[in-house]
């Protein structure tokens, strides 16, 4: 009878230990850092956006040097598969198409960089 109670106690102790350890992922500080997971998801989004904008991987890496390249590639590849399955055409990027600035309507002689009358500037002091 003594053995039955000790084995039952050991089983209960083991069961309670297992139940306590199953909630370890809910304890702050023991799981993965949420900032790292967020950074990975942002990099995947960047890769997907690059694919949709018909931008190559090398261009995407160049434009986003701080993004992890593996996550950017994963996002690019996922978007490529999605676009092929649904027969979606990409939208060309407008980043490279910079319009020239319109010419100024003001004349440069209207802008004063120095006082017109040197004698007037001496009288101010």
Plain-language structure description:
- The chain has 125 residues and is mainly alpha-helical.
- Helix content is 55%, strand content 0%.
- It is built from 5 helices and no strands.
- Helix 2 crosses helix 4.
Strand and helix map with partners:
Layout lengths: L1 H20 L12 H19 L4 H7 L5 H17 L32 H6 L2
What would the keywords be for this entry?
single chain, 125 residues, mainly alpha
Distance between the termini: 110 Å
State the shape: elongated
Overall SS class:
mainly alpha
Order of helices and strands: HHHHH
Low-pLDDT stretches are none
Main beta sheet = none
Mean pLDDT over the residues = 77
Strand residue percentage = under 5%
Quaternary organisation of the protein chains:
single chain
Helix content: 55-70%
The number of E-state strands comes to 0
Number of helices: 5
* C-alpha-based Rg, rounded: 33 Å
């Amino acid at each position: 009878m003594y053995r039955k109670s000790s084995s039952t106690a050991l089983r209960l102790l083991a069961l309670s230990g297992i139940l306590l350890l199953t909630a370890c992922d809910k304890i702050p500080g023991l799981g993965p850092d949420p900032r790292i997971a967020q950074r990975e998801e942002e990099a995947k989004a960047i890769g997907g956006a690059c694919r949709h904008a018909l931008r190559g991987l090398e261009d995407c890496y160049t434009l986003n040097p701080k993004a992890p390249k593996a996550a950017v590639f994963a996002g690019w590849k996922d978007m490529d598969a999605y676009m092929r399955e649904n027969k979606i055409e990409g939208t060309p990027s407008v980043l490279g198409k910079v319009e020239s600035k319109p010419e100024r309507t003001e004349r440069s002689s209207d802008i004063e960089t120095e006082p017109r009358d040197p004698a007037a500037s001496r009288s101010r002091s």
